[in-house]
Write a structure and sequence with these properties.
Chain lengths: 138, 366
């Protein structure tokens, strides 16, 4: 069963930010999209580049030639290597949606006071009662 | 982080001997200064280079990523991707345990195809000195290619003869888009000098010969430029075969770098078909065009065509010959191939060993 890992204080990952964390030995990138947190495996499922070093972008869509729309600004991560794009909310691949998906992890925000009671894993982390923390299930 | 997730793979793959046949060092004009005369340095500062295309300070087709490079390849200590040897070691050579890398310098600083031929001659020579001084001398795993001012065949041959005395130079280096097709007579002195020196000629995709990328003009998109490397290389290979350079220099060996190779068997089939009827037009050819392909051409892996059915790619590879395919990464460019994962998993161990290292070791005498 997935364990819960305290990986960062909320203040460390501001809206639009991201952080590479270690969740029980797994390299996971936590993204903050306007206050909502999402977590994806750092390893790009296409060829293994680091998603955390990628470029944050949006979705370019076109109903017809000559008409373009740029939507979902900041919600798509483009891998540092081959520029394959993944939806941060779902992990779905833009380039090959049928076969590829970036692995997602459950993520939540918990109060420091609650974390101190357990059963969370926070070996590498000092948790204080007053702050909020990002918790990844991995 | 890459290091961490890949530790297991690295341990497993460390047995493989890897030779990277397409490693792009970047050097600034500033680095070439010690190897240029005052006259040429001053000329560069005053007038700059002049490429055979309309966008002297940029690319005809802007790339998908800055400097067409991996976003994680910008050296932490500054500079552009491929310019910091220590970081190249850390991220690529040491990380993957690469035995040798063949240097394939691109960019305006090499003077490739510059309209001012005398400047092109000076820059080619300086590019060769920089490869020796800044790369090969500090990192003997990296082997230089002889950059030549290829629009001047005679001057290029002189540069080849001068450099070939140093066994660190492993090939003569051309680009695929020159002012004329690669088989034309103006380039013959280059092939003659390469054969005399016992060196293969590596031809890398790109170059700006001043012509549109396609036979129907300038396409609209970058994706069309990327695909053009395959079609452009077909014209180039055809020209080399049909002009008869392999009859003139039966020892000549050509390496197609970053041109893909999925198209190569089909080109052979088509040429053979036409040659059966049209051989009286080109009586200097003594055998079917596909035979010249198989005897004289080597290919590098990146960018490999991806087929829906894996067997299709293997059939193409077996037509070309597993002894003719050599691994290349294209580091630090964005379409880089990771040596641990890029080859089809169904290859036999023997085929993998040949592609990763044995073929290049033999061809480049490493």
């Amino acid at each position: 069963m997935a364990k819960k890992h305290v990986v960062a204080a909320v203040a460390e990952i501001p809206p639009g930010g991201r952080k590479l964390v270690d969740a029980g030995g797994r390299a996971v990138v936590v993204f903050n999209l306007g206050g909502e947190f999402f977590a994806l495996s750092n390893r790009c499922p296409h060829r293994g580049g680091d998603l955390c070093k990628g470029y944050l972008t949006g979705l370019i869509q076109s109903d017809e030639p000559g008409h373009y729309e740029f939507t979902r600004r900041g919600e798509i991560i483009r891998c540092a290597w081959h520029n394959w794009e993944f939806d941060i909310r779902t992990g779905k691949s833009y380039c090959d949606p049928e076969t590829l998906q970036a692995r997602r992890f459950g993520v939540s925000v918990e109060k420091g006071a609650k974390l101190i009671e357990g059963p969370y894993v926070a070996e590498t982390f000092k948790v204080s009662v007053e702050d909020d923390y990002v918790v990844v299930e991995a | 982080m890459n290091m961490e997730v890949r530790a297991k793979e690295r341990a497993q793959s460390s047995k493989l001997s890897i030779i990277d046949c397409d490693f792009h060092p970047r050097f600034s004009q500033e680095r070439m200064k010690p190897f240029l005369s005052n006259q040429w340095w001053s000329y560069l500062q005053t007038y700059g280079g002049r490429q055979r295309h309309g966008m002297g300070k940029s690319y005809c087709y802007p790339k998908i990523a800055p400097q067409a490079s991996r976003r994680d390849s910008w050296p932490p200590r500054g500079g552009v991707p491929g310019s910091d040897l220590d970081f190249c070691r850390e991220q690529h050579l040491d990380f993957y345990g690469i035995d040798y890398g063949i240097l394939t310098p691109l960019g305006q600083s090499t003077g490739n195809g510059d309209q001012n031929v005398e400047l092109s001659i000076a820059l080619a020579s300086a590019a060769n000195e920089v490869q020796l001084a800044d790369w090969n001398a500090k990192e003997p795993r990296l082997k230089p290619s002889i950059v030549v001012p290829y629009e001047d065949g005679v001057a290029s041959a002189a540069e080849v003869r001068k450099r070939a005395k140093n066994p660190e130079f492993k090939q003569v280096f051309l680009l695929s888009r020159m002012a004329e097709a690669a088989g034309r007579k103006r380039y013959w002195p280059i092939y003659e000098a390469a054969v005399e020196a016992g060196l293969p000629v590596g031809i890398h995709a790109f170059g700006y010969g001043g012509w549109p990328l396609t036979s129907s003009g300038y396409p609209s998109f970058y994706i069309e430029e990327m695909s053009e490397h395959g079609t452009g290389a077909q014209s180039m290979v055809t020209s080399m075969i049909i002009e008869g350079i392999f009859e003139r220099w039966p020892e000549l060996k050509i390496v197609l770098i970053e041109c893909g190779f999925g198209w190569l068997p089909a080109l052979g089939w088509r040429l053979d078909k036409h040659w059966k009827r049209l051989k009286d037009e080109v009586p200097h050819l003594k055998k079917a065009p596909s035979e010249y392909i198989r005897e004289h051409f080597w290919v590098t892996t990146q960018p490999m065509e991806e087929t829906d059915t894996p067997e299709h790619l293997l059939e193409v590879m077996s037509w070309i010959g597993f002894d003719r395919i050599m691994f290349s990464s294209d580091y630090p460019h964005w379409d880089f191939d990771d040596p641990f994962t890029c080859l089809p998993p169904t290859l036999t161990d023997a085929q993998r060993r040949m592609i990763y290292g044995e073929n290049a070791r033999k061809l480049y005498r490493l």
